Every structure is written in C-alpha cells, then in structure tokens.
TrEMBL record:
InterPro entries: Aldolase_TIM, GlpP. Regulates expression of the glpD operon. In the presence of glycerol 3-phosphate (G3P) causes antitermination of transcription of glpD at the inverted repeat of the leader region to enhance its transcription. Binds and stabilizes glpD leader mRNA. Transmembrane segments: none annotated. The keyword Endoplasmic reticulum does not apply. Keywords: Glycerol metabolism, RNA-binding, Transcription, Transcription regulation. This is Glycerol uptake operon antiterminator regulatory protein. Signal peptide: none annotated. CDD domains: Aldolase_Class_I. It comes from Aquibacillus albus. Pfam families: G3P_antiterm (PF04309).
C-alpha cells in the first residue's frame, strides 16, 4: 500500500481525535490520522485493526503512554497494527520504517530556514508522505514539489472548501483537516 494510492479515491484525510473516530470511519475520507489518545485507548479499541473500514495512522507525537523509540514501534506493530504513523521527529520516521509502517513526516513551515531544514530532513529520512503545516500556505507546494518526490499533504487551519480547492489546485496531493463537517466532501 502507498499513500499516493490511498489518495486516489479521495484526497481528503480526517485528522480526528478519539471521540470523533466513528464519524471519521463513516465519512468519505481516504484515511484517518488519529490525533491524541492514550495507549490504553488504542489497546482497548484496536485489537483487531484489520477490520477497520479505513486505514488508520497514529500521530505518535501526541499519543500518551508510549515512548518515542524503536520499542514503541515494535509494540505498535504487534498489537495495534496501524497502517502508519505521523510524526515530526526524524528518528521516529526511521524507526517506523523498520517496522514496515507507512510514514508521514509533519513539518511546520514558519520561515525560509524551516523550509530548508524540512527539505533536508525529508531527503535524509525518506518518509512516504509529507504533511505541511499550516495548510493555508499552498504556494509552498510548488517549491517542495521541485525538491522532493513524496506526496504532499497540506493540513492545519483548513476551514472551508475554498481552502481545500486552493491547496489541491496548487499541487497538494491531499488535505488533512479536523473539521468534521468537511469529511464527506469528495476531491
């Protein structure tokens, strides 16, 4: 499975907290990034993750109860079995890849230096996709597309259809959003 393939049916991604997971599963999004949550929540709810109707990615930086190390990914691979992870941390991308998880590197672009650092980190760590924050900066997509080959997802501060359309028109491969009312749109 590749992230680009997941985004072919719909380029929208739900960024959902645990309490909105059921709504995300019943929406039209291509996959779900589970934000927040505790280790006990994941163990209680995902013992049989293969039966989920959509691929699940866990934002490991926001998960409580699990260290950010390679043992954490061995545990996730043997118990929860998500399709992949989202993280801002380079070492977590490398550790997750060793356990055959799909990886999304989340980068926050606030200035030219953060853009240069992000490009370097993406090239070094080779995540399967890159989520750029804030998503309301679609002009950055063209710059990144010239430098990296991974699918680009814009996320953060996406509140309406016009922003989604602008992001996709700029060349983004997908758009992630936590606004539940937007999850049933098709793009």
């Amino acid at each position: 499975m590749e992230i680009a393939t997941l985004l072919k049916n719909n380029r929208l991604i739900a960024a959902a907290p645990p309490e909105n997971l059921e709504n995300a599963l019943n929406s039209n999004v291509s996959f779900i990034i589970l934000m927040n949550g505790t280790l006990s929540f994941f163990i209680d709810h995902f013992k049989d993750n293969e039966k989920l109707s959509k691929p699940l990615f866990i934002h490991t930086d926001l998960m409580k109860g699990l260290n950010n190390d390679k043992e954490a990914f061995r545990f996730l691979a043997s118990t929860i079995k998500p399709a992949g992870i989202v993280t801002t941390k380079n070492h977590m991308i490398r550790a997750a890849k060793k356990e055959n998880f799909l990886t999304i590197m989340r980068v926050f672009l606030i200035d030219t230096n953060s853009l240069k650092l992000a490009i370097r980190n993406i090239k070094e760590n080779k995540p399967d996709a890159v989520e750029v924050m804030p998503g309301i900066a679609p002009q950055i997509v063209k710059i990144l597309k010239k430098e990296i080959e991974q699918p680009i997802i814009l996320g953060g501060l996406i509140w309406n259809e016009k922003q989604i359309e602008k992001a996709l028109k700029a060349g983004a491969d997908g758009v992630s959003m936590s606004k539940e009312g937007m999850w049933n749109s098709l793009y």
